[in-house]
Write a structure and sequence with these properties.
8% helix; PHYHIP/PHYHIPL; 6-stranded antiparallel beta sheet; 6-stranded mixed beta sheet; 2 domains; 32% strand; Immunoglobulin-like
């Protein structure tokens, strides 16, 4: 069960699975069947064209015995667990068998390849014999590589899923950020009256290109439908900074879709990025994230009215996390204590996405 359905299969490669648990068993099962010294050992393994769920592999071989090779064996393991091939989907092994094809050869499959994950790979050459067993060469050297982030193609698939559940929109007028009191103290850093961007943590989708890379400040804008005001509860602290929406989101601000995920709960989170035009954050997002129409999208919109004023709306049926990519002057807003509780269970800090959710996962993995 190496490959996805035939419609997704590489036209040059046919992959099958071997029901074996580790490399030692593979060698002991096959090495006595034929003279393995006659088969060349792959050398100088090269990994290229890496995506979030595929890669190309090629190698060099001695000419001796090449005409006997009928198959290649590929041993793929997550780097953090080299001694085991155990994956979440136990029916999908990582011992792969490919019929001989011209190199480089594409290895593709979201069932065993996750984005932004380190793997090791080694290769054998093999000959299938009349009794159906294989004679194999020695294993090649072990090569390490890391799969890539989601591309804009995968992010657009995720965007479409998020748009399907965003629901109706509600008006709002302020962005807010909750923290502990010390966070807002004026002597907390060299730029003493500013909140400064920091690198986003690894919460959300495993393949999102903003995790661990994009610098920004998290804000919320969600309101309670019955009051039209921000909720009084927060998982991040009892003190809240509030700023008028038009100071962060206006005609000079570009908006991007960043992620869509849940944490084993019934409610879902959408991350959008607000980046002033031509800022460092804006340059980072171009080409990496799907751009949204500022005045017409399902999640967070800014519309200019006839009198020149701006009106703002947010999606009702998802929890929006807004990343603003530039420093924010504390003097532009106000800090006050909220009356609600700290609901730590709602924190998304380094939260892991539910990989089994059919609503917020796409075919390339978590």
């Amino acid at each position: 069960m190496m490959e996805p359905p035939s419609s997704m299969r590489s036209p040059h490669v046919e992959m099958k699975s071997l029901q074996l648990d580790d490399r030692t068993e593979l060698e002991s099962a096959d090495s006595g069947i034929a003279d393995v010294d006659e088969l060349p050992v792959p050398q100088h393994i090269l990994i290229s064209n890496i995506t979030c769920d595929s890669f190309k592999i090629s190698w060099n071989m001695d000419s001796r015995g090449q005409d006997r090779i009928t198959h290649y064996f590929i041993d793929l393991n997550k780097k953090e667990d080299k001694s085991s091939n155990k994956f979440k989907h136990m029916d999908v092994p990582t011992k792969l068998v490919a019929k001989v094809v011209p190199l480089p050869m594409t290895v593709r499959g979201h069932w065993f390849l996750s984005p932004r994950t380190e793997y090791t790979v080694a290769v054998q050459t093999a000959t299938k014999q009349h009794d159906g067993e294989y004679a194999v060469s020695a294993w090649s050297e072990i090569i390490e590589f890391c799969t890539a982030d989601y591309s804009t193609i995968q992010l657009r698939q995720l965007l479409q899923k998020a748009e399907a559940i965003a629901g109706r929109v509600l008006p709002f007028t302020i962005f807010y950020r909750n923290q502990q009191r010390e966070y807002f103290q004026p002597n907390r850093d060299a730029q003493c009256f500013h909140m400064l961007p920091s690198v986003k943590d690894n919460s959300g989708s495993h393949g999102s290109p903003i995790s661990g890379k994009l610098e920004g400040i998290f804000f919320s804008c969600n309101t309670e439908f019955n009051t039209g005001r921000p909720p009084q509860d927060s998982p991040y602290g009892p003190y809240r900074f509030q700023i008028q929406a038009d100071l962060l989101f206006n005609q000079n601000t570009n908006i991007y879709f960043g992620d869509f995920y849940c944490m084993y709960t019934s409610y879902h989170y959408v991350i959008v990025v607000l980046a002033p035009s031509n800022s460092k954050g804006d340059i980072f997002c171009r080409g990496k994230l799907p751009a949204l129409d500022r005045s017409n999208n399902c999640f967070l919109s800014c519309t200019e009215e006839e009198d020149g004023s701006l009106s703002f709306h947010h999606a009702q049926d998802v929890i929006l996390e807004v990343i603003y990519t530039e420093p924010v002057d504390l003097s532009l807003g106000m800090v006050s204590q909220i009356s609600g509780h700290q609901l730590m269970s709602l924190s998304t800090l380094n939260a892991k996405k539910d990989p089994s959710c059919k609503i917020c996962n796409i075919s390339v993995g978590r």
